[in-house]
């Protein structure tokens, strides 16, 4: 297992290097000079002389390869520069808003697990019944509707019409219900459909028939054998959802005025706060990469044949 993880970590090095290059190049392609934006945010007239001085201060007068080397060296030391707007270190700013996003994402993932796994199991066991038809309709709606539209519907029904839940800000657990449900519903639909399909496929396998002939109870067969095999593709989707929810929280946080990283990055985009945007893109990409690494490790734990094949 140790060799399996080590190989996966080594394989991430060129991927992370490529991500850093793409992230750096994205800022170079912006139509506005970052030095000019910096001056405008500082309320200083962007004269040619002031722009030249600012470019020298920010290191933008250096060749691109030199700028990249300096940037990646500082990034390794977790120094992503300072925000053009607040003048505070970029990483410090993101870490200030990150707990709210983590709270929203973790709550959504818990809801995904709690809702999708039982729904998929019962939908597969009671195939073509009323419950299965309702479940499949729910999956269709959840997969088809964008998260911002679901959020607006929740605001209309649960806040404006029923006056049950708050829709803005972060405070009590009531403030967390609607945004976390909005963020979770798309993944609930995906997991339910995927897990239902894999459970049905596994129920038709020979090992299930052999287990029944041995007199094992159906509940034991499903929990011990069927569900374990069916969880392999779900683990893949779950790993992708971790990064997807962190990145997708941008829309949900703005709909519900949730004070997280997503809302902060939208403000940075409008203000052309390039150091913040650059740091955010790099961190989100790294989270996606390590989410995939976690999936590979879980795959190796659930199915030893995968890691044994590489040893």
UniProtKB/TrEMBL annotation:
It is found in: Cell membrane. Signal peptide: none annotated. Keywords: Cell membrane, Ion transport, Membrane, Nickel, Nickel transport, Transmembrane, Transmembrane helix, Transport. The keyword Transmembrane applies. One of its GO terms (cellular component) is plasma membrane. It comes from the Bacteria. The complex is composed of two ATP-binding proteins (NikD and NikE), two transmembrane proteins (NikB and NikC) and a solute-binding protein (NikA). Belongs to the binding-protein-dependent transport system permease family. OppBC subfamily. This is Nickel import system permease protein NikB. It comes from Clostridium formicaceticum.
């Amino acid at each position: 297992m140790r060799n399996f993880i080590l190989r996966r970590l080594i394989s991430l090095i060129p991927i992370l290097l490529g991500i850093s290059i793409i992230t750096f190049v994205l800022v170079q392609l912006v139509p506005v000079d970052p030095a000019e934006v910096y001056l405008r945010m500082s309320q200083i007239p962007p004269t040619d002389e002031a722009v030249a001085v600012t470019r020298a201060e920010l290191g933008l007068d250096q060749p691109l390869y030199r700028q990249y080397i300096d940037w990646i060296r500082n990034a390794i030391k977790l120094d992503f520069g300072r925000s053009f707007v607040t003048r505070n270190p970029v990483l410090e700013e993101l870490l200030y808003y990150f707990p709210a996003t983590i709270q929203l994402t973790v709550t959504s993932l818990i809801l995904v697990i709690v809702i999708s796994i039982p729904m998929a199991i019962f939908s597969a066991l009671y195939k073509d019944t009323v419950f299965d038809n309702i479940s499949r309709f729910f999956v269709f709606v959840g997969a088809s509707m964008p998260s911002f539209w679901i959020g607006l519907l929740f605001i209309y029904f649960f806040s404006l019409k029923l006056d049950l839940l708050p829709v803005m800000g972060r405070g009590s657990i009531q403030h967390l219900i609607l945004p976390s449900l909005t963020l979770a519903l798309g993944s609930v639909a995906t997991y339910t459909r995927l897990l239902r399909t894999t459970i049905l496929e596994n129920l038709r396998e020979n090992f299930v028939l052999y287990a029944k002939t041995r007199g094992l109870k159906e509940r034991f067969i499903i929990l011990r054998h069927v569900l374990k095999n069916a969880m392999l593709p779900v683990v893949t989707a779950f790993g992708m959802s971790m990064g997807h929810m962190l990145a997708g929280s941008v829309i949900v946080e703005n709909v519900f005025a949730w004070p997280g990283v997503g809302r902060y990055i939208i403000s940075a985009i409008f203000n052309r706060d390039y150091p913040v945007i650059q740091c955010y893109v790099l961190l989100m990409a790294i989270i996606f990469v390590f989410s995939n690494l976690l999936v590979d490790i879980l795959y190796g734990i659930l199915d030893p044949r995968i890691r044994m094949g590489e040893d």
